[in-house]
Amino acid sequence: MNNVYIIATPIGNLDDITIRALNVLKNIKFIFCEDTRHSKILFEKYSIKNRELYSLNKFNESSKELLILKKLKQGDVAIISDAGTPTISDPGQFILKKLKEKNINLIPIPGPNSIISALSASGEIYKSFSFLGFLPKTKEKIKSAIFENMQTDLNIFFESSNRIKKTLQILKDEFGDFPIILAKEITKKFENIKKDKPSNFLNELNLKGEFVLIINNKEINKDQQINYLISKYKNKFTTNNDLINYFVLKYNLNKTQLYNIFKK
Questions:
Q1: CA–CA separation, 223 and 211 (whole Å)
Q2: Based on the domain organization, do 9 and 98 belong to the same domain?
Q3: How large is the greatest C-alpha to C-alpha distance in the chain, in angstroms?
Q4: How many structural domains is the chain composed of?
Q5: In what order do the strands lie in the sheet with 105-109?
Q6: How far apart are CA 82 and CA 9, in angstroms?
Q7: What is the dihedral of CA 96, 99, 103, 107, to 10 degrees?
Q8: DSSP labels for 177-245?
Q9: Which of 89, 106, 111, 230 has the fewest Cβ atoms within 10 Å of its own Cβ atom?
Q10: How far apart are the first and last CA of the chain?
């Protein structure tokens, strides 16, 4: 059986594509794209011609397994998304899981990544970080996503242009208007990576674009997190000691700090 190549494509600037990615795309006949119309822009720039392009998106992904297997009998297959790497908050996870179960050889071709790009230019000091995809839509789910995932130094999220103002308002109201890093339009004309408070970002006129949001968990008041977790889990444990031990093990919280809060 032939190989399936998972190829990272530019996230904005079309010059951000590797030589290896171009070589593979120019030598593979069967290419599955998130949007074939979008991919043709990249192919035209780099004179990638006479390819067979097939749609592979979140709406039809589950139905493409047989077609990919058919094409694999004829040659190698490539999978690309509109921008960045397939499966990273983009289509591909379902179909690649199915192919892996059939022992199909999956070969990654790395490339541009908005998460790592924003992180590299964030100016933060860190040893660990978590990427948590797109933020949830409701206030309570956003609080849960952040408070439940503060074990690493940084949390990184995606946010869309039509939701960024609402999200910034929730961060300001629920977390005390602490500084965050907002990376806008990475690699594009209006790229901007800035650390500021949500209230100040909200006062800016232009919040259009695609965003990477970086939260330094050290900026969040630890008592806020603990109080949130207590309110969520207090009825699930018989004693405070059981609850404290659970927090220490799961969230790496300080036992002395927890005891002091329960004494109040």
A1: 28
A2: yes
A3: 72
A4: 3
A5: 52-55, 30-33, 77-80, 3-7, 105-109
A6: 7
A7: -40
A8: S--EEEEESTTSTT-EEEEE-HHHHHTSS---S-EEEEEEGGGS-HHHHHHHHHHHHGGG-SSHHHHHH
A9: 106
A10: 65
Residues 60 and 25 in one domain: yes
pTM of the model as a whole = 0.89
Residue pLDDT tens, the chain, 264 long: 799 999 999 999 999 999 999 999 999 999 999 999 999 999 999 999 999 999 999 999 989 999 999 999 999 999 999 999 999 999 999 999 999 999 999 999 999 999 999 999 999 999 999 999 999 999 999 999 999 999 999 999 999 999 999 999 999 999 989 999 999 999 999 999 999 999 999 998 677 889 999 999 999 988 888 889 888 888 888 888 888 888 888 888 888 878 777 766
Hey, what are 73's tokens? 């009998």
Q: Are strands 154-159 and 211-216 parallel, antiparallel or unpaired?
A: antiparallel
Q: Which domain holds residue 259?
A: 223-263
Cα separation of 36 and 81, whole Å?
A: 9
Phi, psi of 211 (to 5 degrees): -125, 145
Cα(15)–Cα(188) distance, integer angstroms = 11
Could you tell me which residues come within 8 angstroms of residue 205 by beta carbon, excluding any fewer than 6 positions away?
none
149 and 232 share a domain?
no
d(CA 131, CA 115) in angstroms, rounded, equals 8
In a 13 Å sphere around the CA of 176, the CA atoms on its Cβ side amount to: 9
